Amino acid sequence: MEELISTIAKALVDHPEEVSVDRKETENEIVFTLSVHKDDVGKVIGKQGRIAKAFRTVVYAAGNHSNKRVFLDIND
To answer: 31 in the Ramachandran plot: left (φ > 0), alpha (ψ -120 to 50) or beta?
Structure first.
């Protein structure tokens, strides 16, 4: 899952070398935190959050096979 998030994010940003994905797992959820260069945050979020919403939809669909809820946080 981290590779999926990283691959999509690197295609969107100008500084792909600064893309990192962290994973925190609890008993009933998995939280992925995407960190990008401060200049690329707008590119990952998009106008009115449309790219972020689509990004989250893909991640949620990919994580649907597990019994845990999947979340994606975007940080700068």
So the answer is: beta
| 66 burial via Cβ count (<10 Å: 0-12, 13-18, 19+) | exposed
What are the backbone angles phi and psi of residue 59, rounded to the nearest 5°? Answer: -65, -45
Place of tokens 């979340």: 71
- How many other β-carbons are positioned within 10 Å of the β-carbon of residue 73? 12
Give me the CATH number covering residue 24.
Answer: 3.30.300.20
- Tally of domains within the chain: 1
For residue 27, give the 3-state DSSP assignment.
coil
User: Which structural domain range is residue 30 located in?
Assistant: 2-75
Segment 25-46, tens digit of pLDDT = 999 999 999 999 999 999 999 9
pTM above 0.85, yes or no: yes
Q: Are 40 and 14 in contact (CB under 8 A)?
A: yes
